[in-house]
Amino acid sequence: MSDYGVLLVSHVPQIVEGLSILLREVAPDVAITAAGGTDDGGVGTSFDKIQTAVLKNAGESLLAFYDLGSSKMNLDMVAELSDKKIEIFDTAFIEGAYTATALLQAKVPYHEILKQLEPLKVK
Amino acid sequence: MSDYGVLLVSHVPQIVEGLSILLREVAPDVAITAAGGTDDGGVGTSFDKIQTAVLKNAGESLLAFYDLGSSKMNLDMVAELSDKKIEIFDTAFIEGAYTATALLQAKVPYHEILKQLEPLKVK
Amino acid sequence: MLTVEKTIRWLNLFGQKVEEKKVYLSELDQAIGDGDHGTNMARGTAAMKTVLEQKAYDTVQDVLKTAGMALLSKIGGASGPLYGSAFIGMAKQAGEGAADVSAILEAGLEGIRKRGNAEAGDKTMVDVWLPAVDAVKNKELSRERIDEWVKATEPMKAKKGRASYLGERSIGHMDPGAVSSGLLFESMIEEGVLDE
Amino acid sequence: MLTVEKTIRWLNLFGQKVEEKKVYLSELDQAIGDGDHGTNMARGTAAMKTVLEQKAYDTVQDVLKTAGMALLSKIGGASGPLYGSAFIGMAKQAGEGAADVSAILEAGLEGIRKRGNAEAGDKTMVDVWLPAVDAVKNKELSRERIDEWVKATEPMKAKKGRASYLGERSIGHMDPGAVSSGLLFESMIEEGVLDE
Ligand SMILES: Nc1ncnc2c1ncn2[C@@H]1O[C@H](COP(=O)(O)OP(=O)(O)O)[C@@H](O)[C@H]1O
Ligand SMILES: Nc1ncnc2c1ncn2[C@@H]1O[C@H](COP(=O)(O)OP(=O)(O)O)[C@@H](O)[C@H]1O
Ligand SMILES: [Mg+2]
Ligand SMILES: [Mg+2]
Ligand SMILES: [Mg+2]
Ligand SMILES: [Mg+2]
């Protein structure tokens, strides 16, 4: 298991469920955890769900991806309070997460992954 | 009902289900249809599902968004064979679809929507 | 100055106003967002009320921090981390002394700005917090002025949050977060938090 | 030259080879993609076999078109629209006359390139189709040469498809679509499609 993990945060549970399926297919060895929707499964983001997803992730250093700006604010707060190093990427959500995860699976070094994520920045 | 509709194509059924939920919340009046996964619900894209999503969409002119390159190729083929005008956007999937749908709901003119989608191009 | 009791009364009145205006707040959000600001805020303030009733609090800091964590956890929208950061910031400042309400509110504003990076004029809750904090400092906060700041978000073009996706089309609607923040400051006045 | 029968035999042999190499094709795809190229192709060619058995065909064009639609509909991956476009392109050209196999294959290659925009050296099926079409034109297609082109994709860096996400890490693995395309051309030789 690599010491990097991937954290996915979305407003809707189904989006991150589906994205996790897509990513696991290309990266069976990468630690991927996700938080989608509010505590009661509605549209929004949940600080608690994100915190749980951080704890459950086997990675010590997390690459985090989110859909809309408000999930980023929740992610930020979790990141500030967490012991893990959490890097939040302002990239296209699905495309950025896919790229990072595929590269982690291929054991590409972190600084090289950062470079490949750069052009996917849209936020 | 506007004559524009939004078409979503993804490799995983859950991704477009979830994205549709996100979009309907901000754009209850926009026609949104989606195709996710292969015919048997696996990871991939289905020409037939896309064709059905095009037909079911109440819009005459469709703004289409996709996750990975291979869904674009299927979309392309459907677009060539369809009577509807289908514009495929190489934008960040979720962010592009969200932007376009929110602007359609707000009755922003098409050329203005194109302008706002431009910086979201990542493919 | 803030005392434990006054703070709790303030926050409960805020929650009550949010509950009363729930539908209105969501309608405002429907126009330029996703239509959930009222339900978000009502869910958050209801959770806040519950935790504030659950035990006795010794310090204002403790009350504000508990309220902030409840709002953060339960609101579920952008306003969750924003109100959460405001209250957590206020709690930290209250730890330095609960007498200086103006400094406490200033710390709340700082929390919001740090979290959301919004500037004055971006059509967000900051457009109420910013002048309100200033007015408290100068002892001139009033209901009328709060209403003015809230209404002043109507002609603004949104630069932050979901409304910013609409560009020009966000003009002509009041910002829901500005309205809910207005309720927070109104409640302060009504509960005498600002009285010496 | 292509006849209805020869075309069907060719395609069925291709399907048989794909089925035999299913696991291998998916393993290749696991290294630089998502590991489904074998199951994708097998699903597509099985569907193709079924439709080709369902009725009698009058023209080569009709056979190729039916095969193309089956592959397009059933493969489910990038190779679906690519093989689909190849066969639909070949069908169109066969409508102009089924004698000129070289022109038909050229139209297939055009279909793939139009659909996927891949160039020579991008580490895709194009890296087999391109030299193969050329060799057919010069009557020098052979099993050995096909193997060479397929193997030549190993040191290439992928520029298209899922493998392109891996950049440098795509080097050192054969392209699965090149391998499956190799099977298509091998089947042509074995079924005598290229004999006068
Ligand atoms: N970056 C930001 N800075 C300050 N306030 C913001 C920011 N983004 C959004 N807001 C405020 O949040 C309000 C919307 O809250 P809410 O509807 O609960 O969240 P969401 O937009 O996630 O549905 C807006 O009206 C605005 O006042
Ligand atoms: N743009 C393209 N042009 C030509 N061939 C491509 C292109 N993209 C992918 N391919 C081919 O498709 C093959 C992968 O097919 P497959 O695994 O069935 O689809 P997917 O990548 O969607 O899972 C690659 O090995 C490559 O040969
Ligand atoms: Mg909202
Ligand atoms: Mg919301
Ligand atoms: Mg594949
Ligand atoms: Mg696939």
Description:
The complex is a heterotetramer, with 2 copies of chain A (123 residues) and 2 copies of chain C (196 residues). In chain A, 47% of the residues lie in helices and 20% in strands. With 123 residues, chain A is α/β, with parallel strands linked by helices. A 4-stranded parallel beta sheet of chain A has the order 2-1-3-4, sandwiched between helices. In chain A, β3, α3 and β4 (85-89) form a beta-alpha-beta unit. In chain A, α1 (13-26) runs parallel beside α4 and α2 (47-56) crosses α3. Chain C has one domain (4-190): Alpha Horseshoe (Serine Threonine Protein Phosphatase 5, Tetratricopeptide repeat). Helix content of chain C is 66%, strand content 0%. Chain C has helices spanning 4-20, 22-32, 37-54, 60-75, 79-94, 101-116, 126-137, 143-151, 176-190. The mean pLDDT of chain C is 97. Chains in contact: A-B, A-C, A-D, B-C, B-D. One magnesium ion is lined by residues 29, 33-34, 36-37, 77 of chain C. One adenosine-5'-diphosphate binds at residues 29, 33-34, 36-37, 40, 77-79, 82, 112, 116-118, 124-126, 160-162, 175-178 of chain D.
